[in-house]
AAA-ATPase-like domain-containing protein (Segatella copri DSM 18205), 47 residues
Amino acid sequence: MAETLGSRFKAVLGKAYQKTEMRAVVLIDEYDKQLFFSNFLHILAEK
């Protein structure tokens, strides 16, 4: 079993390809990037 989120995602894509023999396109949406970044800064400020 994959250990990291990235390796799990890679495994899911690999298994989907094995099953369908179709390639996938992954789109990364950064809609909430500012929200994530501000929360990250808040966590850093607490340390």
The mean pLDDT is 83. The chain has one domain: 5-46. Residues 5-46 form one domain.
